[in-house]
Amino acid sequence: MNIIASSTSRPTARALTAEEKHEIDHEMTLYPDKRAVGLEALKIVQKHQGWVSDESLMGVAEYLGMSAHELDGVATFFNLIFRRPVGRNVILFCDSVSCWIMGCDRIKEHISNRLGIDYGQTTADGEYTLLPVPCLGDCDRAPVMLMDGEQHRNLTAEKIDQLFAQRALNKEASESK
Amino acid sequence: MAKITVDGIVYEVNPQNNLLQECLSHGLDLPYFCWHPCMGSVGACRQCAVKQYRNADDKIGTVVMSCMTPASDGAIISIADAQAVKMRSSVIESLMISHPHDCPVCEEGGECHLQDMTQMSGHNYRRYDFKKVTHRNQNLGPFINHEMNRCIACYRCVRYYDDYAGGKDLAALGAHHHVYFGRQEEGTLESEFSGNLVEVCPTGVFTDKTFSEHYTRKWDLQTAPSICTGCGAGCNTTPGERYGTLRRIVNRYHHDLNGYFLCDRGRFGYGFNSSDNRITEASLVSSHADEKGVRKPLTQQEAQRQFDALTAGDVVGIGSPRASLESNLALRARVGVKNFYAGFSAEQQRCMQAVIAINREQGLHCPDIRTLEQADCVLVVNEDITNTSPRFALALRQAVRNRAAQLATDARIPLWQDAAVRELAQNELSPLFILSPQGTRLDDVATETFLSTIAQQVALLSAIANTIDASVGTAATDEDSAEQARRIAAALISATKPTIVSGTSAGSEALIHATANVARALRKYSVQSAAINLCFAMPEVNTMGLALLMEEGGGTLDEALQRLARGNADAAIVLENDLSLRTTPAAIDAAIAGTDSGSAVWVVIDQLHNSFNARAQLLLPVTSFAEQNSTFVNYEGRAQSSHQVFPADAALRPGYEWLTPHDPLSPLLTTSETILFHSAQTLAAFAGAEKLLPPRTGMQALMKSPRQLHRYSGRTAMHAHSNVHESKQPTDRQSPMAFSMEGLSLQKDSSLLSAAWAPGWNSNQAISKFQDEINGELKQGCKGVHLLQRTLPPQSAMAVNSAKAGKKGTFVVYFIDHIFGSDELSAKSPAITARSVGPYLCIGKSEATALGLHQHGLARVSNGDHVVELPVLIRQRIAAGAVGIYCGAEINRHLFAGSVSVAPVNEDDNVLARSRQMFSDLIINDSLINNSESGRG
């Protein structure tokens, strides 16, 4: 619905990129109803933009012919649709029961100290965001965390140090190329 | 009928309903939150748990949600069962976990469904001592406060606002313990029916912002049953007063009309009552040589004496469609029928005559609002009902869901299974066709909206009638409109309850006849020869009442003004009417010049100051709807009583009291009742109206009903700042109600029900205790008296003159109405003013481009003689060759009726910024999408 009620201070819809549109169009062929694509469209935008800004939300809503209010209901229902900017790497750290028994609190403390961030925060350089997650389905190898789509198991402080050191090295290498 | 057993007692129930509804219908107390009589069940809150047993031998039973369980024959349940009681008290304890302890400062307190249900469920001690979840609130505009911390997450608000009222901008955001009901971004709630959230929300999340300005507890308000004066729909309201000012308006249940819901104009448009614009004293322009032209205040006695002296001779009386029937009758009696003139234009009077004739014709039926909700195919002709008769629009949003009801019935899903029915139906809606010069706010649920000028609409209606019945109307000339006519005709023919809704806003008699012709043609196909539903929205509260009075003789406004211009009268009395809204300034100037030359005087009786009554010699202040007893006749011809809520300031009197010569020797006290009784006896148009008067028998003859609740406080102290002696309560000699707590209180009798209250039920949801069943009629309720009888035989279709085409290079003008601003009185209420916009021009994209007009820029609009500069709103959805003008309070619409030419004006950035700001507050639907196209991949 195109309701004329726009004041200058409010965010306005961002035009979706051709790539985003192309992927959303594909999803549309799979559902009888445009609005059913809402969640997939938000995931597509997040894949490309890293997160879903108000402008992106409005852009998607406009593209699907639904109200931004309704779509935000979908977006905010799911914890992993990010409505605030996140770092380039999102660490999903399990704090559920098996990991807790296996001492995940200490590991989390270690990560927090190393990166200088707590749950829900992003490092100043925009590299990492740390989020708690209830269970990654790998309880026999707890503690577990997910970073960059890769599951890291049987975590220890040493493993964490290795991991971040390795990443820093990799990053340096790719920058010097 | 089926039988169920509740705690050992057998009740007769309707097996189509659920257990909760049937328990409430039988007066049992069973707590609930998410269920609403109009919105069915979703089983979200778990508060209505009861124990159900499989059979008489089952002693263990299972706990079920009564709202989700059908009241099937033989069901055995227990409300009092210990396990069910325990369950309900645990549920309320969980719901209350984050609820603040702020009842003393909460505006819902004292009429809070949550308070009532908490008490009923037996939760009184807080065991949870962790931090409560808190939220940030949003500014939702001038009507509604937002206090999310109080939310118990019953989801009623979104189910009402989005699902029932078709709103798009309130959503359930977030999940589990931090679910948040609000907008995606802060801002004014866009729905025209947002105010009902105040009553739908079981607690204080959504409260009335206008009421906050001068808040009073429900039990301290003085109330009386009243009728909304916002339009001609006749919705029932309960205004509340404290310390001499009107504090708020809430819904009053009427089975046939408004049900549980009002529009925002009706709910928030009461502020004009205490506005600075109110005429508070009588005044007379002096005619003495030394102080000529000076307006001097008068006492009431002086004013009455002057009034009687100045209007002793041959007097022209001009009535009003916004004044009560009694005041119009009193004016007519005072000046005589040959001197009585309608307060509306000749054009409107002709339209009204046509509408009344149609409403007397057999084979047609004027649907009440509940019947509108039951229509399975609707054709809306020209009238922008969301803005002129808003409650109709809410009803049509229910009508389009009859398709869902049909699908659910076929799938054997009970209709109260709200979520299941919606899930089943998805985007399926019953057909709704709209003919309109511009996109409307109902387009999102319309099958098709045909953008067309009046002339095109008349032609299309003729073609529809012709398609239905070849002997009627004229076939379409081009293939496109023939195809459109076929689509609409086919849908109307295949419907079992086809319904046509129009109005008189266009002022076109041809359109009214063309609309009626479609209904007449449809009779051929009507199921079991049922009458065809056809109704016309009325712009003002008593338009129909005045039109009926004019059936008994009298002239038009134009005749009155011409007579005055000729100097052929000693005085003119104008009753509650701003004539500058009814005719051109030239006509008024001529009439005033005519009276000046003959030294005749103008007497205006009115509520608010305006540019017209500033010119009257004698100005008399009149009481508002809340300060007098009145009868108003709605669009159906249903006369309803509106009772005085509180005594007005001593200087103010009802119109009928000013007008009826006071004879101290007469034994008859002239009251609204005696005037109504007398006219019911003497005027054929009002035969039967005396049935509105309260019975004078039995207890009621001896005792009055209280206007104040039994808990009303402060009566002995509220005047203590001026006098330490307790003042006597004002006496009311005119009505069956008293300005007091004493009297025959209404425990079961709804004949004078204002604020519903029942033991344990302090919120408005106590209304279920006064209904004979849930959603049923009120016990002993008065639904009004139908004055229009279907006495004329069915008419054949009338020939319709096609409207004349405009000159080349000009545009056909249609006038835009806005729910906030188009009604003269409510527009002066601060909350409504905050939502109103100034005058503007609407034009289509291609026309604007051709003329060189910019969005939000300025245009010069001219009809040859008159020119006005207006901000431009370029719309996508507008009939070709037409321009819309919204007049607001500034522009006289009679100057620009017909056709106009439009030219661009050079605007500067200031102008652009100003109009952009203005248009940012305007909520219209300019979407290119209709329902049939939306939601499809």
Please estimate the helix content of chain A.
Answer: 40-55%
Taking all Cα atoms into account, the compactness measure Rg of chain A is 19 Å
Q: In DSSP terms, counting alpha (H) and pi (I) runs of 4 or more, how many helices of chain B?
A: 27
Shape of chain B: globular
Structure description:
The complex is a heterodimer of chains A (177) and B (937). With 177 residues, chain A is of the alpha+beta class. Chain A has two domains: 18-77, Arc Repressor Mutant, subunit A; 89-176, 3-Layer(aba) Sandwich (Glutaredoxin). Helices cover 46% and strands 10% of the residues of chain A. Chain A has helices at 18-28, 38-49, 54-64, 68-77, 97-101, 104-115, 157-176, and strands spanning 89-94, 128-133, 145-147, 150-152. Chain A has a four-stranded mixed sheet with strand order 2-1-3-4, covered by helices on one side. In chain A, a hairpin with a 2-residue loop joins strand 3 (145-147) and strand 4 (150-152). In chain A, helix 1 (18-28) packs antiparallel against helix 2 (38-49), helix 2 (38-49) runs antiparallel to helix 3 and helix 3 crosses helix 4 (68-77). With 937 residues, chain B is an alpha/beta fold. Among the domains of chain B are: 2-95, Ubiquitin-like (UB roll), CATH 3.10.20.740; 282-344 and 544-651, 3-Layer(aba) Sandwich (Rossmann fold), CATH 3.40.50; 364-530, 3-Layer(aba) Sandwich (Dimethylsulfoxide Reductase, domain 2); 811-920, Barwin-like endoglucanases, CATH 2.40.40. Helices cover 26% and strands 17% of the residues of chain B. Chain B is built from 27 helices and 37 strands. In chain B, the strands form nine sheets. A seven-stranded mixed sheet of chain B has the order 15-14-26-25-24-16-17, with helices on both faces. In chain B, helix 10 packs parallel to helix 18 and helix 14 (402-410) crosses helix 15. The model of chain B is unreliable at 932-937 (pLDDT under 50). Classes of the chains: A alpha+beta (177), B alpha/beta (937). Chain A binds chain B through residues 1-8, 10-11, 28-29, 31-35, 37, 54, 57, 65, 67-73, 76-79, and chain B through 162, 168-175, 180, 183-185, 187-188, 190, 426-427, 444, 873, 916-917, 919-929, 934-937.
